[in-house]
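Case study 2.
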Amino acid sequence: MTHSNEVMKRWMLDAIVGVGSLIVFLVLILLLPAVLPGEIGYLGALLLFVITISAGGYAIRGVSA
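Prediction:
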């Protein structure tokens, strides 16, 4: 595989993880406050979003290394 294909692959994975994490965040921001008390639900959604995007970044780092 050439260098340009590797860069494109990392870029595409980064975009997929970003969009997927944003979708997860939007779903969580809508659902968690309905299940948990208001502030705890929003904080939980933010925390799970950070964990999701961090795990995606870690996975991309493992793929591209």
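Residues 3-35 form the longest helix (33 residues).
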